[in-house]
Amino acid sequence: MIEKINIERNLQNRVYEIIKNYLIRPDVPPGTHLYEDRLSKEIGVSRTPVKMALNLLEKEGLVVIQPNKGAFKVHLRFQDVVQIVKIRLTIECLALDIDEGCDTHLVVDILDGLIPDINSIKAPEDMARYPELDQQFHESLIKVGNSPWLLRMIKDQDTLFHMFRLLSLQNIERIKISVGEHKKIVKALRTKKITLVKNLIREHWESAIQDLEKRHREMPGLFL
To answer: Domains in the chain and their CATH numbers?
Structure first.
């Protein structure tokens, strides 16, 4: 017998995705009050799936729920963001170590396939496409290790990391630097210079942190 579609569960997942995508937007300030009744009206659902979505997002670190006050977008500390990036850096380098005999050709082919799209990001109007390309690039790097455990670790902190990605990649000059760094990583990976690849990955993320630190100084309210 064919299993029936669980409309309630599908609705819950959709509401969760809508609120999550709203929260990770850079134009939604930290501390924004998330009123259940307002969200339910705007999304067009009852308060129940909204409440369940907010509870799940609290577990993921995007929302803070205060008794008798409600739910708020999390206000990250700058140190929290740095730690998240360092965890990502460590996992990407670990993926290159976990299977020393791994075949990198498949991943290089995937990364090569992304380069034309990445190269097409040249003007401010192209910027909206880059975070998704950046995500695909770094997920492909982790696949070098052929480890479902590393992919699961990334999945656990992917939402917070994507928030960092959207914050970091709002400047066309920063994107151009990122594109150049990506191309260097692919070139080194193609020749299987693993030590060089890891050094380039480290430099890439350190550069991103430095850029975000600069924005933190220029916009004091961005982080705690």
So the answer is: 7-73 (1.10.10.10), 78-222 (1.20.120.530)
